[in-house]
């Protein structure tokens, strides 16, 4: 079945550092890929998405590129802020399987 | 406000009891999904309803059931509660899976 593997956390960075959170997937066909973010005490918010190979999703300075050849969808941000501290989830849906399959989540803490 | 409303926000109940969690989807969304988030299991898909009909089932226990009503709101019923059922329960809605979901803020269930 479909699965998502993402970088184990927690990740701690200083403000203005470069961020990469790795995500790889296993799925047949052409899944849609997502990054969700969960701030403390809140629900999940869609951060960005990509629906086909080579698409780049971007939002709030975060980017991720759908790489079919490496089955990856790594999340990047050039300069993180304290307000980016949250848990980040990589996820996918697939044709004929509308449920979101999530990775385990990566807790990110940014220190001033 | 994401547009997906979940009530109650917090629930504390005793083992063996039954509770009902409610979800109102975003206006126009026909699909409702229920997820359980616990520390040891991560985000687990429970069940999906589409326009009143069950569409997909995930790791939902037999003690749990759900339904979607004609006005599209959904209820998740949890019975014979055990300590291990303590978790955050999220509802999400979508017009289509490729667009990603909108999540509610969740119901935190504590079984004592």
The assigned structural class of chain B equals mainly beta
Proportion in β-strands of chain A? over 45%
Helix content of chain A: under 10%
pLDDT under 50 segments of chain B (min length 5)? none
H/E series of chain A: EEEEEEEEEEEE
- By DSSP, the count of extended strands of chain B is 11
Helix content of chain B: under 10%
Note the total helix count of chain A.
0
N-to-C span of chain A: 41 Å
Query: Roughly how many Å is the radius of gyration of chain B?
Result: 13 Å
The shape of chain A, in one word, is: globular
β-strand number of chain A? 12
Q: Low-confidence runs of chain A (pLDDT<50, min 5 residues)?
A: none
Oligomeric state, counting identical vs distinct chains: heterodimer
Mean pLDDT score of chain B, rounded?
92
Sheet with most strands of chain B: 7 strands, mixed
Termini separation of chain B:
30 Å
How many strands, what sense, and barrel or not for the largest sheet of chain A?
6 strands, mixed
Shape of chain B: globular
Helix/strand-derived category of chain A reads mainly beta
How large is the share of residues in beta strands of chain B?
over 45%
Question: Could you give a quick summary of the protein structure above?
Answer:
The complex is a heterodimer of chains A (112) and B (112). Chain A is mainly β and 112 residues long. Chain A has no helices and 12 strands.
